[in-house]
Design a protein that fits this description.
4 helices; 401 residues; 7-stranded antiparallel sheet; 7-stranded mixed sheet; 3 domains; Jelly Rolls; mainly beta
Length: 401
């Protein structure tokens, strides 16, 4: 993959030609411009200045932000209550994964995370993501993929931005599957938004980068802006793709497992992001015992959570279902379900739910406690008791059987 700006303010491309610039990416300096390597030497760059001129490095203090309690306790939370910050807020933490929220009104800090890959889902808002390699726009409904070690700075248009995401020290890759002949599943790589190198005006605010390594945050201050890229080629690179451009194998003859809708997955299968989109439904979700810890974010209202109380299932809420305890639809949702008489009567639901799964046990942070919806773990008991009061003879006839 090769990218370059249409018109460099440095005029190098105008003098030598853009194709000549790209063809000459052999690791050697180009006139007064520098060659660079990133992403473990897998991406080559032409830089306007040397990226090595550091004025100072400050180690930031750390603190224990995790409550090590309730590994099998179902929980619900609301990202609409997460406050604005210049960096992301970690809500749940495991050994290799974290569930984060990113909320900002104008812009974020410059951040380079060398510990983990990140995948963000944009719940609302729009703006520009600036990276080592250039920038791309994002909007509500987008997924933003950021490989470890990539410098990013997110800016928001009027009204701010709210995202939810997962990070994994094991990394993330596209879930490549050959479900259909001649169709790229889960998405066509030619429809993603790639970073385009563009001039970024230098300023004091764009010279300090937050860097994480080994769980420790530091501030690195440069002599000038680190946004120096003129051209780049290679992988892995950051990008955005809209949820409406996903190609997923929805079927109406059975209720498929969510793993069939996976978009990103870690190489070892320990973390996964799946998308439950608009589709015809054969049945309600079944009761199940999770093989992974499941965090399900409701980008739109989710019928199967009706009866949970506290607003669970509304757009902007999410549930955490750990391994070790069964879960499924609330009794209210099950009671109202009527099995269609024929396939033509299958209901079409305009869903959009993002499922983050991890092999880790997830523990809430102190910040997460402000977002938790109380009593969710007892919602099935309340739903069952309410049903029993209306149907003392049991479940006969429920669900259209």
């Amino acid at each position: 993959m090769k990218k370059y700006t249409d018109e460099f303010p440095w005029r190098y491309a105008a003098a030598k030609g853009k194709e000549l610039l790209l063809q000459g990416m052999d690791g050697s300096p180009k006139g007064r411009y520098r060659a660079g390597k990133a992403a473990g030497f897998d991406i080559e760059m032409v830089l306007s200045e040397s990226p090595t001129v550091v004025k100072g490095i400050t180690l930031l203090p750390t603190q224990d932000i995790v409550s090590r309690q309730g590994a099998v306790l179902p929980r619900a939370f609301d990202i609409r209550t997460v406050p604005e910050r210049e960096s992301w807020t970690s809500l749940f933490i495991g050994q290799h994964t974290r569930i984060n929220a990113y909320v900002f009104d104008v812009g974020s800090r410059l951040i380079r995370d060398h510990d983990a890959d990140h995948v963000w889902f944009v719940y609302n808002g729009s703006g520009i993501c600036y990276t080592d390699y250039g920038n791309f726009g994002y909007r509500a409904g987008d997924f933003i993929y950021v490989p470890r070690g990539t410098l990013t700075c997110l800016t928001a248009r009027s009204g701010g931005t709210r995202m939810i995401g997962i990070e994994s020290t094991q990394g993330f890759r596209k879930r490549a599957r050959s479900v259909y002949d001649n169709i790229m599943v889960p998405y066509n790589e030619f429809v993603v938004s790639l970073p385009i190198p563009e001039y970024v005006e230098d300023s004091e605010e764009l010279r300090t980068v937050l860097v994480r390594r080994g769980g420790q945050w530091s501030e690195i201050t440069y002599a000038y802006t680190p946004f120096l890229c003129l051209a780049w080629q290679g992988t892995p690179y950051p990008f955005a793709i809209h949820s409406s451009k996903l190609n997923l194998p929805y079927v109406d003859s059975i209720h498929p497992d969510p793993s069939n809708f996976a978009v990103f997955v870690s190489p070892d299968g320990s973390a996964m992001i799946s998308v439950l989109g608009s589709r015809r439904v054969h049945s309600l979700p079944y009761d199940h015992a999770n093989p992974l810890t499941e965090v399900l974010f409701y980008a739109k209202e989710y019928d199967a959570r009706k009866g949970s109380d506290g607003g669970v299932g509304e757009s902007g809420t999410a549930t955490v279902h750990p391994m070790g305890v069964w879960h499924g639809p609330q009794m209210a949702a099950f009671e109202n379900w009527k099995k269609p008489a024929s396939p033509k009567d299958l209901p079409y639901i305009d869903d959009l739910a993002i499922m983050f799964e991890t092999a880790d046990a997830l523990f809430p942070t102190l910040d997460a406690k402000e977002t938790l919806i109380p009593g969710y773990e007892n919602s099935w008991l309340r739903s069952w008791e309410e049903y029993q009061s209306r149907h003392p003879k049991g479940m006969g006839g429920v669900g259209g059987w």
